[in-house]
Amino acid sequence: MPTLSTLRTLTLALAITINRAQATVVVPYVSYIGPSPIGIPNEFVRNPVNESEGMYQGRIGVHLAIGTPPQHVWVPPHFYSSETYVKSVSLCDNYTIANPGGQIEYCESEYSGLFAANESSTFERSSERSFGVDAVSVFDAVPDLQNDEFRFGVQTTKDPNYVGENWGTLGLGPNSTFLNTFFPGKEQVGIYYTGGNSTHGKPAHSIPPRPLVIYELEFDGYNQSHYTGEKFTQPIGPPSTLSNSSNPFTLNVTNISIGQDGILGGAGSFIATVDLSGRTSTIFPSSVYDLFIAATGAEITNGMPSYNFSSLPTNPAEFFNLTLTFSDGFRDFSVSLPQDILITHFPGLPENPDFAMANILNADDPMVMRSWPVRGPVIALNQLMFTSYIGIDHSAGEWWLAKAVHPWDEPAPASTNNTPPEPKENTAAGGIGDNLKKAMVTASALAAAVILLC
């Protein structure tokens, strides 16, 4: 009988049950920010970017190949929407070099890939407005996922769809078309943070950049080797009264600590919407935001806490580690975020190479209120995923958090012959891998850029 540690090393992660082992279908959620053709092969890009001219190519989400011949789009998952939407190539019809931003490649990058229905010989228009049916395959899924009659929407206007995203949408909510197509009768999704190292072979983040696997979506059964301990279960819905979206995922924040000092007790508890899109900042109520600023001595730059990196604490006992505690009224569940993940260093700024920024926003900041689709406090997915595995079960009407089991959590092997053990590859002090740091820096920088550019 294989041990749990052995099972963690398998290319296909296994979910262990009492009576049998069940394979989990894994779909990577990838991010790519950088110049093409590095990272994204040109055949995946409708308008390949000339790297020598400094053009920009960005992709984020689940990679779908749709139509005949295949057209490649990247769509972020949404767990409160049930339909899949892709962006139509017609959105860039009038995007010429005379327009701000330059050439059509920039336009396509903005939408993370485009779909032209009239270029697919297998596309069939649906009787429903803007919907159609076509062949689809989920790129890099293990095992393969493909279907010849996948129903999805094609957005042809510049107005955002009802989810409020500029990118496409992979709907994984109740009665999800995707789930009903590939996993009929199974409305369960697991979300696992990889730290840039996929369990099924995607390359780690590197310089020059390659596509970075931020998360993996797990279907057809939760991967029980990726979490341990008791589940902290919450009901799905109704939407938060502070939210203008239909996001039904909320947590009651009862305590917040910076390092060893608490800045929020139970009397100051608040309800926060949990954004599972994977690209948000954590947003505190203004009173809590002010406490965070005071506790870390931050200055405010473009609405975000900023620091001189060289002046940040170096003593682990004094780190600005952030701990969030949630309560369901009966028990607590805590999520901890180390300082070197919470506060991102931006050494590439020539005017200020020591510049660092915390990915924390003020819910009452006018810019945040104008640009963010969710109103009020928000807990970002990357905060939860650093220490937590997330399970969503639409059939049971609940979702849950459990302690994640990540490669950087595993203890170093015992030494032999009185020889100190060799450090684990890509592991830094405290057990946080270098690839993990790079992954979180990328994710934090992306989230900051989204807010600052909105």
Automatic annotation (TrEMBL):
Give the region (Disordered) as residue ranges.
411-431
Tell me the Gene3D superfamilies matching this sequence: Acid Proteases (2.40.70.10)
Q: What start and end residues bound the annotated signal peptide?
A: 1-23
* Protein origin, superkingdom: Eukaryota
**Classification via InterPro entries:** Peptidase_aspartic_dom_sf (IPR021109)
Q: Which UniProt keywords apply?
A: Signal
Q: What is this protein called?
A: Peptidase A1 domain-containing protein
Q: What organism is the protein native to?
A: Arthrobotrys conoides
